[in-house]
TrEMBL record:
Gene label: cypC
CDD domains: CYP152
Pfam families, A to Z: p450
Lineage: Bacteria, Bacillati, Actinomycetota, Actinomycetes, Kitasatosporales
UniProt keyword list: Heme, Iron, Metal-binding, Monooxygenase, Oxidoreductase
Protein name: Fatty-acid peroxygenase
Length: 413
C-alpha cells in the first residue's frame, strides 16, 4: 500500500501526555517541516515556516467554523465568538475589535494597567510573600476593566481575575482544571450578559466609545445588535486575553531571574530593548502549542496531502524554536530583535496572518505594549526570590513556572 494511503493512528492521547513537544518531536525528521497524522478522529496535516503561515491563513484553505472543539469554545473563546467565524461574517465582527489596536487606545490601556501595578506594589510591600502570577492577574483585571469602561461597582477584581485565568488555564486539559474553566466561563458570561442588558435598558451607563459601549452597540447585521450572550462572549474576549498577559509577566520574571544582566538595560528605560525583550519572552517561552483549522478542500503541502474536512495545523511552538529561523533558538537573546525587526510570519506566539483582515490575534499589539511596560517596572522592583519550584513543565498546556514565581521582601522603587 502507498505510504501516503496507509491508515494513520490517532495521536490525540499522545498530545495530552506530551504537551508542547508532541508536534515538534514528530516533525523533527521532516526536511520540509510537514507531517501527516490523525487528530480528534480526523486526518491532519501539520506545517511550519513563514510560507506555511501564509498557506495556513489563506481563507480558501481553512475555515474556523466547526474547527474549534466544543471544550475549547466552552472555556477559552465562548460559543459564537469571532474566532469561530469566516469570510464576511468574521470581518464584520472583527470591526468591533480593530479600533482597539489604535496606538492611543493601546497607550490608554497601558496607562490604566501600570497605574494598577503602582497601586498594587504599595500593598505587596506589606505582604510576607507575593505570587507574581496571581498578583499580576489582579493588576491586569483592574486595569483592563477600567479601560474597557466597566462600572467599578460591577467589578470585583480578585474573583474576576481568578475566573479569567481559569478560562485560559483549563481549556486544553481534561480533569479539574477544565471543570474550573467551564464554571468560570458560565459564571462570568452570565454576569457580563446582565451588565450588557442593564446598559441597553439605561440602568447602567457605559462611557461613549468604550469597549463596553462598542460591544453593546455592535451589529453583525443592520438593525440587529448582538444578543446579550454573544455580546458577553466578545466582551470577555477583550478582558480574558489581556489578563492572560499574566503568563508572559511570570515568564519575564523567570527570565530576569535566570539572566539578570538584562535587568539594568530595562531599568534604564531603553524602549527599543524593552520591546525586544517582550518579543523574546513571547518567542522563547511556551504559550500556544499550535493552531488548527478545518480544511475546505483537499490540500497539498510539500508533497503531503489532507482531504477536505480534515485538520490543518500550524506548529507555533516548533516554529518559534526552529533553528533555521532563529539560529540559536534555545538561547534567550533579546538582542536578536534589535538586529532585525520581528517578521510577523516568523514570530507567531499569538498566531500569524494580518490582524486587520485575518485571524491573527488583534490583541497582540496590546500584549507587546503591556509586556514591555511591565517588564521595565518588574526590573525596577526590588525583591528576593526564595527557594521554590521554578520548573516550567512542557507537558502542561498552558504551562507556567510551577510556583507561579513567588517573591518576598518587595520594595517599591
Amino acid at each position: 500500500m502507498d505510504a501516503h494511503r496507509r491508515p494513520l493512528m490517532d495521536r490525540t492521547l499522545p498530545l495530552l501526555t506530551e504537551g508542547y513537544a508532541w508536534l515538534p518531536n514528530r516533525m523533527r525528521d521532516s526536511a520540509d517541516a510537514v507531517l501527516r497524522t490523525r487528530l480528534l478522529g480526523r486526518p491532519a496535516l501539520a506545517v511550519r515556516g513563514p510560507e506555511a503561515v501564509r498557506f495556513f491563513y489563506d481563507e480558501g484553505h481553512v475555515h474556523r467554523h466547526g474547527a474549534t472543539p466544543a471544550p475549547v469554545l466552552d472555556t477559552l473563546f465562548g460559543q459564537g465568538a469571532v474566532h469561530t467565524l469566516d469570510g464576511d461574517a468574521h470581518r464584520v465582527r472583527k470591526e468591533l475589535f480593530l479600533p482597539l489596536l489604535d496606538p492611543d487606545r493601546v497607550t490608554g490601556l497601558t496607562e490604566h494597567v501600570t497605574a494598577a501595578w503602582d497601586e498594587a506594589v504599595r500593598s505587596w510591600s506589606e505582604l510576607s510573600r507575593v505570587v507574581l502570577f496571581d498578583a499580576v492577574g489582579v493588576v491586569l483585571t483592574r486595569g483592563v476593566c477600567r479601560w474597557a469602561g466597566l462600572p467599578r461597582q460591577a467589578v470585583d477584581a480578585e474573583p474576576l481575575a481568578r475566573d479569567l485565568i481559569a478560562m485560559v488555564d483549563g481549556f486544553a486539559t481534561p480533569g479539574p482544571r477544565h471543570l474550573r474553566a467551564r464554571r468560570a466561563r458560565a459564571r462570568q458570561q452570565a454576569r457580563m450578559a446582565r451588565l450588557i442588558e442593564d446598559v441597553r435598558r439605561g440602568k447602567v451607563s457605559a462611557p461613549a466609545d468604550s469597549v463596553l459601549d462598542r460591544v453593546c452597540r455592535h451589529h453583525d447585521d443592520p438593525g440587529e445588535p448582538l444578543d446579550a450572550g454573544t455580546a458577553a462572549v466578545e466582551l470577555l474576549n477583550v478582558l480574558r486575553p489581556t489578563v492572560a498577559v499574566s503568563w508572559f509577566v511570570a515568564f519575564a520574571a523567570h527570565a530576569l531571574h535566570r539572566w539578570p544582566a538584562h535587568r539594568e538595560r530595562l531599568r534604564a528605560g531603553d524602549g527599543a530593548f524593552a520591546t525586544a525583550f517582550a518579543h523574546e519572552v513571547r518567542r522563547f517561552y511556551p504559550f500556544a502549542p499550535f493552531l488548527g483549522g478545518r480544511t475546505v478542500t483537499e490540500l497539498t503541502w510539500h508533497g503531503e496531502s489532507v482531504p477536505a474536512g480534515g485538520i490543518l495545523l500550524l506548529d507555533v511552538y516548533g516554529q518559534n524554536h526552529d533553528e533555521k529561523l532563529w539560529g540559536d533558538p534555545y538561547a534567550f537573546r533579546p538582542q536578536r530583535f534589535l538586529e532585525r525587526p520581528a517578521d510577523p510570519d516568523e514570530l507567531i506566539p499569538q498566531g500569524g496572518g494580518d490582524p486587520a483582515t485575518g485571524h491573527r490575534c488583534p490583541g497582540e499589539r496590546i500584549t507587546v505594549g503591556l509586556l514591555d511596560s511591565l517588564a521595565v517596572r518588574l526590573a525596577r522592583l526590588e525583591y528576593t526570590v526564595p527557594e521554590q519550584d521554578l520548573r516550567i513543565p512542557l507537558r502542561r498546556i498552558p504551562t507556567r513556572p510551577r510556583s507561579g514565581f513567588a517573591v518576598t521582601g518587595v520594595r517599591a522603587p
